[in-house]
Write a structure and sequence with these properties.
InterPro entries: DUF427 (IPR007361), DUF427_sf (IPR038694)
CATH superfamily: Domain of unknown function (DUF427)
Number of strands: 10
Shape: globular
Pfam family, one: NTP_transf_9
Domain DUF427: 14-103
Number of domains: 1
CATH topology: Metal Binding Protein, Guanine Nucleotide Exchange Factor, Chain A
Helix content: under 10%
Strand content: over 45%
Order of helices and strands: EEEEEEEEEE
């Protein structure tokens, strides 16, 4: 099995879409999976869920489990499948339950 590591992300992290702040957290997690870029997972409580709309998209990762997606409603447009979550992640990555990740090619994810 691939060794996935999850750490507390250092500092304060923010997600911006079309200039709007979608998430800001000092309690984010950094997930490192070999062969993939690292991903920051934001606690749901630190995400402006009013900007998110459930998508019909679902994927399955053999290491993390079933993911569900969200569209992001920015001030200027809809960003399709810009965020995802693992509601019931597989054993070994349970820390990301209740967290959302954002597609860094579609929105800005940065440390302040």
């Amino acid at each position: 099995m691939t060794e996935i590591r999850i750490y507390p992300a250092q500092g304060v992290w923010v997600v911006r879409a079309d200039g709007a702040v979608i998430a800001e957290s000092s309690n984010a997690l950094e997930l490192n999976e070999p062969g993939h870029p690292w991903i920051i997972y934001f606690p749901r409580a630190d995400v402006a869920m009013a900007f998110l709309e459930a998508s019909n998209t679902k994927t399955t990762c053999p290491h993390k489990g079933a993911a569900t997606y969200f569209h992001i409603s920015g001030p200027g447009n809809m960003i399709h499948d810009g965020a995802w979550t693992y509601e019931t992640p597989n054993e070994g990555v349970e820390k990301i339950a209740g967290h959302l990740a954002f597609d860094g090619l579609k929105v800005t994810v940065e440390r302040l």
